[in-house]
């Protein structure tokens, strides 16, 4: 669905009772793997976790060091080395297979490289876990769930409140974290919302057009009922990262959110990740994320 930035625009769909486009809208969510229903209730296949390659040795080949620093792939690193674009301790190195250590000053374009391996962990957060690194008042944090994922210090990309469940990305990639949490990059999120009472079609329209909260205007990029006959369940697509934004949008219209589950984040879904479990991102997913957000 195309993002609409104008808060005063007309809603893209008519959500009045009996409107056949509601079914079409739900099919679009499903075709893109974004359906809250299909993500939450479909049969899940248990996937064996594969340990990411570690780069904790004191020495390694120069091309691997450059690749681990996030500059490029190892193959492309070979080309940079051959062109004389990589220096080691102030001297240009063009010899393939050069061995370096973490103590060496390795630079590319005048910037010193840090070869700590980048780790990307995707968690299906359960209820009652807080999204913080440390909280002396919290009984459980998400870090307890991913403690065995790696030795590197990783941290959550954005936040989910204690009662919200669903997708949470954790990484030590500061550049990716910065762009995924910055409003201008509009990282898309889709939530499955369970309300305390049926939602009026007029309120669906209102959320699509935009409402004004205490911290400014906001609108749903897309919104529809998850079940045709159940008006208490809504799928909402949004890019805003403001605190408790989905809950506050519905509370503004007089509804109480009974359950909130994030089923989609920046192109990632919960497929094959049971609640409370995690997996590493694949190389393909990492490449897609960086291509889409990190310029």
Work out the radius of gyration.
22 Å
Main sheet summary: 9 strands, mixed
Determine the mean pLDDT: 82
**Poorly predicted runs of 5 or more residues:** 1-22, 27-49
Give the assembly state of these chains.
single chain
Relative strand content: 15-25%
- In the CATH scheme, the class of the largest domain would be Alpha Beta
Give the beta-strand count.
17
The gross shape turns out to be elongated
Counting helices, strands and paired strands, the structural category is alpha+beta
* Tally of separate helices: 9
CATH topology (fold) name of the largest domain: Alpha-Beta Plaits
Helix-strand topology string: HHEHHEEEEEEHEEHEHEEEEHEEEH
Distance between the termini: 23 Å
Going by CATH, the architecture of the largest domain would be 2-Layer Sandwich
Helix percent reads 10-25%
What is the count of distinct domains?
3
- What is the CATH homologous superfamily assignment of the largest domain? Pseudouridine synthase I, catalytic domain, N-terminal subdomain
Task: Report a brief summary of the structure.
By secondary structure, the protein is of the alpha+beta class.
């Amino acid at each position: 669905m195309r993002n609409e930035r104008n808060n005063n625009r007309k809603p893209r769909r008519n959500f009045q009772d009996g409107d056949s486009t509601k079914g079409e809208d739900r099919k679009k969510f499903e075709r893109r793997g974004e359906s809250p229903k299909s993500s939450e209730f479909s049969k899940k296949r248990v996937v064996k976790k594969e340990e990411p390659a570690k780069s904790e040795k004191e020495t390694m080949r120069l091309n691997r060091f450059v690749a681990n620093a996030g500059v490029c792939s190892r193959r492309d690193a070979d080309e940079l080395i051959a062109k004389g674009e990589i220096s080691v301790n102030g001297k240009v190195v063009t010899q393939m297979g050069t061995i370096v250590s973490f103590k060496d000053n390795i630079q590319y374009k005048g910037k010193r490289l840090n070869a700590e391996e980048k780790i990307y962990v995707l968690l299906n957060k359960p209820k009652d876990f807080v999204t913080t690194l440390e909280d002396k008042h919290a009984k459980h944090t998400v870090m307890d769930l991913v403690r065995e994922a790696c030795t590197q210090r990783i941290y959550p990309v954005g936040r989910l409140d204690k009662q919200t469940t669903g997708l949470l990305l954790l990484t030590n990639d500061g550049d990716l974290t910065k762009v995924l949490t910055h409003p201008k990059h509009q990282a898309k999120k889709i939530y499955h919302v369970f309300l305390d009472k049926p939602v009026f079609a007029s309120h669906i329209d209102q959320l699509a057009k935009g409402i004004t909260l205490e911290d400014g205007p906001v609108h749903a990029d897309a919104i529809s009922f998850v079940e045709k006959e159940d008006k208490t369940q809504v799928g909402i697509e949004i890019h805003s990262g403001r605190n408790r934004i989905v809950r506050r949008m519905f509370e503004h219209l007089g509804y109480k959110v009974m359950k909130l589950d994030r089923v989609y984040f920046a192109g990632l879904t919960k497929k094959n990740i049971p609640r409370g479990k995690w997996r590493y991102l694949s190389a393909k997913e990492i490449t897609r994320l960086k291509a889409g957000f990190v310029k």
